[in-house]
Amino acid sequence: LSFITQSVILQSFSAIEKQETKSHVQRFVSQLDNEIEDVAATCRDWALSEETAGVFTETGIVEDPSEVFQPVSMKNLGINYIVLYNASGDRVFSETITSEGDTIPSVPPELDTIIHDSIIPEGMQTGIAGRRGISSLNNDPVILAGYPVAYGNQSDPHEGTMVMARLLDTSRIGDIDQMLQLDGSLVPYHGKEGTGVLAAHEAEAAQGG
Q1: Kind and range of the H or E element at 152?
Q2: Is residue 45 classed as helix, strand or coil in its secondary structure?
Q3: What pLDDT band is residue 207 in, cutting at 50, 70 and 90?
Q4: What is the DSSP letter of 126?
């Protein structure tokens, strides 16, 4: 009888542990979805702003945007990369905001590739409005979102694309873990080809502590 009782108890603990792990994973994925929507909302707001439209000239060339995309503001918003494309799909501005709030007038080449594989695919110079998700940048998870920017003559505007991205580095994952009281992690996902940007539940593997 003692062996039977012990077996029942161990099975009960195992079932509870599985339920807790599943709950932890669901909470982690839910927070990733919140991160994605936060980046998307930030990108949408900036894409619709007159300040962003104002950095484009009539010919689609970007004037000095340093006064528009203040690095401290972008850092506080959790934005690590900003990329602008004109109506022809040509990249006309790119910037990296470091964790210290400094700027680098470029982005990793792989990021441009991801954007063209997902948000601005071949044959769609103006991009897919509102596309957002998680991808992998040099084996680090990164959240991207893209929205159209109308510029030029308002009676017949051109439509470019703004992309903002947030790097989910060790520090940011640590912040999420601390907030949720979990020990989550992300690993690159290569199960789908050609989409580039995936939803949170497709793009990560999270382990709950």
Answers
A1: none
A2: helix
A3: very low
A4: T
